Request: fold
Amino acid sequence: MAPGFFLTFEGLDGSGKTTQLRRLASWLEARGEHPLVTRQPGGTKAGDRIRTLLLDSKTEAVAPLTELGLMFADRAQTIAEVIAPALHRGETVLCDRFTDSTEAYQGGGRQLGSEVVLALHQIMCGGLLPDLTFLLLPDFELSLQRARRRNARPGTVDEGRFEREDNQFYRRVFDRYREIAARDPVRVVVIDGDPPIEEVHQNIVRLVKQRMAERLRTAAAR
Reply:
């Protein structure tokens, strides 16, 4: 059986990561592949309930460590129920956010530090890491404006709890993402600035094809 391929998209809300994930999923579908697409938090029945609790702007007074624990409870369930079985079947998994988000938002934004996040990742997730991560980092102010504007649209599901945070919080998130990318430059591919959507998509496709081919060659050589 061909090995599964685990790919994640990261960045601030408003960075365009979800758009690029959907475009990549469509590209894979057009090639006759059927990627499993999921998200964090969420992706399971239990996870969707956790997502509502974590992201609804009406949720108040959640302690940072409680928030961290909920993020990992969701992730452990998604790995057990969705991600691990798909990878075992040799499928491609596309996930909107993973532990890098927790390290950036809770480790950086909430100032809990990376050490506790990475320790919980080992315990709760068995150390599972994506094969490839795309980190979209457009202009900081522009990304925040997009996120806040999107969550203010009439009829939009209320997921604006984090958007209530001030710019200092998001600057810490942004800087921690940079630190993660510097620490793991092979896995994490940074897409800086605000190039056209199609240009970003084509660069992502090129890198995905390259990494998938490398993974298949490595598996065949074993």
